[in-house]
Write a structure and sequence with these properties.
The chain is an all-alpha fold.
């Protein structure tokens, strides 16, 4: 049975606003939390990044943290990593987010965190990423992105990490 579009759109709007109360109220109606809104996205894909409690409510209700966005193949973990939301990533990891999945450009969430120099996110993701030195489609590893974008602390951290955790060729 397909969900009523208005209910999915209301849940998506509540999630995007970071409105925990309304999100939980709508979830009581046993809505398919993975249904897509009028823009082709699930409520979890549009959740306000600074509201891990709203994401957790959706995840507890069965939201899939690994659904790619129809535009670019980004997952919520990519968005949270790029913008430095460690608390959101911790919630996503608790509920089965796979941070080893690439977007359409071949970026892991780790690539985006490294490019932006979000050191706490890099340190959280690197040990949870299957291949933390995997090049993206442009041929750049997270270490190279950090260097290229003058995120020197992050680049040095990756250099040390590579020596302590050598990767198979």
């Amino acid at each position: 049975m397909a969900e009523a579009p208005d209910v999915v759109n209301r849940l998506s709007t509540a999630a995007a606003r970071g409105d925990l109360r309304e999100t939980e109220q709508i979830l009581k109606s046993n809505i398919n939390v993975n249904a897509r809104n009028k823009f082709g996205r699930t409520p979890l894909q549009v959740v306000k990044l600074g509201c891990p409690s709203v994401a957790e409510a959706l995840l507890r209700a069965g939201a899939d943290p690994n659904v790619p966005d129809p535009s670019g193949g980004l997952r919520l973990a990519h968005d949270a990593a790029r913008d430095g939301y460690t608390d959101m990533l911790e919630v996503l990891l608790t509920y089965g987010a796979d941070v080893s999945l690439q977007d359409d450009a071949g970026n892991l969430p780790l690539h985006l965190a490294a490019r932006e120099g979000h050191q706490d996110v890099v340190e959280l993701l690197a040990p949870r990423t299957a291949h933390p030195f995997l090049p993206n489609r442009a041929g750049l590893t997270p270490l190279q992105l950090a260097s290229q974008h003058n995120k020197d602390v992050t680049a040095r951290w990756f250099e040390n990490y590579r020596h302590v955790h050598p990767q198979p060729e």
